[in-house]
Amino acid sequence: xxxxxxxxxxxxxxxWRITEVPAAYFKRVVDYxxxxxxxxxxxxxxxxxxxxxxxxxxxxxxxxxxxxLLVTGALHEDGLADFCDGFGGGTSREKILSIMKDxxxxxxxxxxxxxxxxLLWNLLSTLSLSLACMAVASGDAWSKFCSAQIINxxxxxxxxxxxxxxxxxxxxxxxxxxxAFIAGGLPMWLFLNRSYWWAALAPVAVFFLLWQLxxxxxxxxxxxxxxxxxxxxxxxxxxxxxxxYTNLW
Length: 249
Description:
Blueprint lengths: L1 H9 L22 H19 L5 H16 L2 H15 L3 H9 L5 H19 L3 H20 L1 H4 L20 H18 L9 H17 L5 H26 L1
């Protein structure tokens, strides 16, 4: 039931038709975020591989990105845009939170998305097709696991009734952290050559930097911060994959 809640929360696929999920389960959806990465990363990798059979690699990457955007409803990208707007234009904790809650996108949000998608497209387009597919399947799940740790080390920055999703996530217990860790790392272990495992350190480093920023400026996190953390962690994963690939090639 908790996994179903996570699939409903983090995707736009009609999992809600399976059965009605009690509201309490949505407080635990972050525990299963890496498992959702199997689905979203798998769809993205599958779309990339199929598209590249009859289209240029650069075009196939665009279609793969579009596929994940459609599946997730651009949930994380919306978070990244709000994050950039908030921290780009906010001069105080209250101002940052106010800007991030605004549904309108600003200059910093537009620039953030442009740079993000430009870098992501370039990094994936320059890889071989097989490596790009394996990197996407691995990076999605691992980056979601790394980003999920934000709920374990920081408090929620708003009151629950002020949350966009109207829910505050419960912190992971040991019994839920371990499966999440396995779910995050398993695709990388299965699909990537060991020489590329060093890329797993990049999301950890990016997460540490974001944690320091959020601790200093917000004294907590928001849902937008979770989405932004995932995308930035994932981007760093592909960056190191690309660097290793270039040197090995």
